[in-house]
Specification:
Two copies of one chain form a homodimer. Chain A has 243 residues and is mostly helical. Helices cover 63% and strands 3% of the residues of chain A. The longest helix of chain A is centred in the middle third of the chain and has 25 residues. Strand 1 of chain A pairs antiparallel with strand 1 of chain B, so a sheet runs across the interface. Chain A binds a DNA duplex (30 and 30 nucleotides) through helix 3.
DNA sequence: GGCATGGATGGCACTCAGTACCCCCGATTA
DNA sequence: TAATCGGGGGTACTGAGTGCCATCCATGCC
């Protein structure tokens, strides 16, 4: 029974990973797509994969997690990326780069991503699980921004809102790419979506050498100067130091 | 809903016409808070509430849903609110009002909301379920905005990002209110958070007392400040520190 | 009063996800 | 060869969620 073999399928790069994990994922997707998620039991999966039932839960803590096998690694990658020189670069640019990391992970396995998309779109339980995965990315971006915005007034608010906007922009670009069947270029829509976010929060570089500031009367002068500095610093929105 | 009255019903079916739903919620919270969510079984809840096990699942489709008993009604309220004269008012203002509706629901039962907050904060399963609830609000706001932005270029992107930003601002204000133990005023932080979102997406008011400054890049900052000061002569607070 | 009907509830049995505990087997090492 | 260790398997158990049916009760009709 435990005979190996059978279905050993490489999903792109020849990784020195345990083959059993891949076998479980392959079998699960085959069954989920053919007969549905709820209609597939763990026993069905392990029977098709040729492994023991107990082994399934050794690799995946829950039935839903088998659909998102690579997010833990991506989360770790993002942690590492944001941990490199955390105070360098404009904060919003840093989280945009972090979001691009996620898109890249999807783009590495286009057909796997498209199959998963079709699945999560129509299975509420998988959608819910995807939400909690996305939430972890968003929290990580927000935590990073909170540290960067610590000396700003309402820094936490700004951090939460910007993180949510970046994630929403990423999701918008990702979904349109997935809906196209992963045929077009993913990064183009992503760049456009992130550009919208950056210009919304005053982090975009101006197209020409003119900057326009609109302010209400009564706004404290230091806020005005802050906005001007962030707008004229060639896209770097970092707050003034030493405050 | 959160009023503590009529706690456990008699085990026998001699209840006059009791709100069984309320009894289940009350019993569930009592047990969840005292011994924990995972440590409480459905049997514990229905025994304390004095109802049959089958009745629990008649009112709540899953164990987690008993913690969010009023969101279905609030979702319906929001649907109705956005459906009234959908094309009236500024789109962002409309979704901000919709978000205020949710905050108001929380504020109607402060101690219930605080108890729930302490629960969801430390139970991953409840956090995941809350995410799917919030997602439904966000989708509703996004769908509304997509309709309003249908003729704009990138209307769908703008709709998704603005909806996410509004939800994030709402959550930020809501959480700081809940963290305070519901002692302060909830609407003040909410208004400030939503104001930030509105000004980020170019929807801030200030139709009359507005000053516009146009400057070429490279102009020294002191010149810009000089111009602004002369234009805003009424002006302003003081900069943060002597920096 | 007797009876039919429909909604609300309780009881029971079942499936399946997830877990605890223990066993097996092969490889490495003292 | 014995001891150990680690990956995998098997079994039984708990508990969530569902389907089916019996029961109770209120209402309405004859």
């Amino acid at each position: 029974m435990s005979d190996t073999r059978g279905r050993r399928q490489e999903t792109g790069n020849g990784a020195p990973k345990p083959p059993m994990r891949e076998a479980i994922v392959e079998a699960a997707f085959e069954l989920f797509l053919s007969r549905g998620f709820e209609q597939t039991t763990i026993d069905d999966i392990v029977t098709l994969a040729g492994v023991g039932r107990r082994s399934f839960f050794r690799y995946f803590p829950a039935k839903e997690t088998v659909v998102f096998p690579d997010h833990e690694r991506c989360l770790a990658d993002m942690t590492r990326l944001l941990g490199i020189d955390p105070d360098e670069g404009a904060p919003v640019d840093r989280v945009c780069d972090a979001a691009r990391l996620v898109l890249r992970m999807y783009a590495e396995n286009p057909d796997f991503s498209v199959r998963r998309y079709r699945l999560t779109k129509q299975v509420p339980g998988l959608r819910a699980h995807e939400l909690s995965v996305v939430w972890r990315y968003e929290r990580m971006l927000a935590e990073y921004l909170r540290a960067r915005f610590a000396n700003r007034p309402d820094g936490a608010l700004r951090a939460d809102v910007v993180a949510a906007a970046v994630v929403a922009a990423h999701n918008n670009a990702l979904r349109s790419w997935l809906r196209s069947g992963a045929t077009v270029d993913a990064t183009a829509a992503m760049d456009e979506a992130l550009a919208f976010v950056r210009e919304s929060f005053g982090c975009a570089e101006a197209p020409d050498d003119v900057v326009v500031v609109v302010s209400r009367r009564g706004v404290p002068m230091w806020r005005v100067v802050q906005e001007i500095e962030s707008a004229t610093a060639a896209g770097s929105g970092s707050p003034p130091e030493g405050n």
